[in-house]
Write a structure and sequence with these properties.
The chain is α+β, with helices and mostly antiparallel strands. The chain folds into 5 domains: 8-127, Immunoglobulin-like; 136-336, Galactose-binding domain-like (Jelly Rolls); 340-453, Galactose-binding domain-like (Jelly Rolls); 459-802, Glycosyltransferase; 807-907, Maltose phosphorylase, domain 3 (Sandwich), CATH 2.60.420. Helices cover 19% and strands 30% of the residues. Strands 20, 21, 25, 26, 27, 28, 31, 32, 33 and 34 form a 10-stranded mixed beta sheet that branches. Strands 10, 12, 15, 17, 18, 23 and 24 form a 7-stranded mixed beta sheet that branches. It has a 7-stranded antiparallel beta sheet with strand order 35-42-43-44-50-46-47. Strand 20 (288-292) and strand 21 form a beta hairpin. The longest helix has 22 residues, at 628-649. The protein is globular and about 85 Å long. Mean pLDDT is 94; it is low at 1-7 and 13-33.
Length: 908
Amino acid sequence: MKKLTTIIIIALCHHLAFAGVGLQNLRCEMLTNPQGIGTAKPRLSWQIAADARNTNQVAYQVLVASTPGKLAANTGDLWDSKKVTSSASIMVPYAGQALTSRAACFWKVRVWTSTGASEWSQPAQWTVGLLNQSEWTAKWIGAEHGFPWDSIAKFSRLSARYYRKQFEVKPALKKATVYIVGLGHYELFVNGHQIGDQVLNTPPTDYTQSVISNTFDVTKDIKQGANAIGTVLGNGRFFTMRPIYKPQKIKEFGYPKMLLQLELQYTDGSKQTIISDGSWKFTADGPIRANNEYDGEEYDATKEFAGWNQTGFNDSKWLNAELVKSPGGKIVAQMNEPIKVMGTVKPVSLKQLQNGEWVMDMGQNFSGWLVMKVKGNRGDKVTLKYAETLKPDGSLYIANLRDAKVTDVYTLKGGAEETWKPAFVFHGFRYVSIEGYPGKPEMSDFIGEVVYDDLPTIGSFETSNPLVNQIYKNAYWGILSNYKGMPMDCPQRNERMPWLGDRAVGSLGESFIFGNGNLYAKWLDDIEQAQKPDGAIPDVAPAYWNYYSDNMTWPGTYLLIGDMLYRQFGDAAPIKKHYASMKKWMDYMRNKYGKDGLITKDKYGDWCMPPESLELIHAKDTSRITAGPLIATAYYIHFLDLMKKFATLSGKPDEAKAWTAQKESMENAFNKTYFNKQTYQYANNTVTANLLPLYFGITPAQYRQQVFKNIVDKTVNEGHGHISTGVIGTQWIMRGLTEYGRPDLAWQMASNEDYPGWGYMVKRGATTIWELWNGDTADPAMNSRNHIMLLGDLVVWFYEDLSGIKPVTPGYKDIVMYPQTTKGLDYVKASYQTPYGEVKSSWENKSGFKWNVTVPANTTATVYVPASSANAVTEGGKKVPADVKFIKMENGRAVFQVGSGTYNFESK
């Protein structure tokens, strides 16, 4: 068969990591470190890049070998799938020889397509980590106490702990691997060299349930003879939660601790293991004097000890490491991307106030830290304090940070220029006050480093409206700011909690911008681990705060995210894994709060809807407030629909039928209780009260247009075209308006410049999304300026409706492209990296409609071109060719079926 050189295979080995891989940057891994994945049955994916249109895979062959040499010789001693007749190219399960811990696997793939065969892909690899707890021979070390310079109080100041171990290595080393669990954060050094480029290692968990391990190949860092390994332990989420003054609310885990295992393999087959135990030396009397996620880091450079992580260092005055108890959680390999420095931000201004204090504006609200260059005398102290907003006099406004001190202090060692940044804390900020800086600070002395999970940016979006573009940019910065190994609500104040409700539909919008599949799969594990034996799920998970308030909407995010992972990434595994826990929660809520066919509990309601007064945080006018039981029951019915789907995917058809029967019964009770057939209103006729049953399909078909008319009338007549929903209603409003024929009203909401709306935030200087619609007029001490919960389905609507990119089948194997055109919108340009490759939609609607479409290989798309007839459409400047199949005319659209490739449609 003819070889087609235009087909290139991009190989990945993962659970959900599809994007961020260039054609010249082939990789096969769970995350950026291909070492130590936590499964013996990985799933393999590849993307096909082809010039020819209508390229579809018809077969594939995967080779997995134990050595690069065997793979190069086309010998798959671990797995040779042979030629498999299948179009599957994502989530293909490894089906070779049983893999054990430490197994190194090298693989490649080739495919046969509708237009020919490909060459073999470039090789990629993965390594299996320690799969069994018994394989950890290391001992937990730490110190379950503070030291005289520490303060164990409400505002704890706990210094970092430094550990070291010197050891001998024989000649002819073949491989050296470190397995490490460092709680709460750690830095790892071998012979003075820092290992890896990740920061704030490791991702937070409920450490009594699970602790995350990392694996590093350190072969190149080890030398024959004397070697030294060193670690620094910071507090992270392990010791930071202030339980002393609120033990009933805040969970604490103890003092930092570590488990480390260095395994050495020699060419003669012998092995050597260095483990953490009582032979290690440690001190807490080092330069990091305090590190607290809320309060900042204090670093005293005069306390540095040069060479502490290298051989020959005199550690005779250091203490012997203490053996301590395990935190209790199961050791699991990290399967989500590590946190890294992902970008930089340069200051835009630096001004001195009358009191001598300097205030620097970074021009962008973000999360991370400052890198500072400074030169001065030994003992000089520079204090950096962080904030999101300023007072009228130009000083920092910090009331909205509550009791977070958000202050870094650096003490100079003196002499030459010094460069410093914190190691174990991050800040959410735009402004920084600088005090004690020797001489006059210059903007060139500082740079901001943007810190979040190493997620690829997989989407782009632009319109002809600059305000909407800025809203999108604000969403982008807000989303990335709140990724820290788990999705948080905000990065700046004394909260920073993984609230479930904040990410319900928001996670779906985020997935168009960032490849967040691994992150959210990890978070589902956190949620399951936080579930109580009776089935209750908390509002915050991991449950750092003891909030088991039995809401429907916040814990229900558990199901919505499972559905998102399947929908966006084609991954059904999380649903199957968590189905039993999801069912347990559904049964718990029905048994505890079910009454007369309704669910009676949801205390948050439509959180943070625009109140009747600009000075109010929450509405007091009952006509604006949507009843909690209505929200709870509508959501429960929606979740019954999801559970039917999940049961089917899990191979439980009888349970699927049971969910369907329960849904039908509850729909009847809901409509009987809340629906007024004379006025076509639900309950008190709020937009949210009408929207939820309409969008969830609860409203009987014959009444849907009348119910929708009430939504429109309420929005237009009372809201004057502005949004009137809070966190709950905003998750469905943009798509709800569009699906029922009013994309123009959705566009008006999106592009409004005045209150309330996202554009209002922009016009008031926002560079991220606020916590409140009226965050500048309600109590500003309440308002976070970097929250994402009010985004709702806005980003989803940008991609699915304005650009017109939507999946028909999970993972975008089949795509529908239906862009919404509306008055005031001249063009939209968008791209999205699906599991199969990049899909693009770029349209212009000025003198006629012009639309550039790109469909990835191994997929098909149904495209809806605005046109009076099929004959009014051209492709590539000519009559529509035979490979663009006309289907029908529908609602002023010419509908075509296309395969992969790039198309240029025009219509008058």
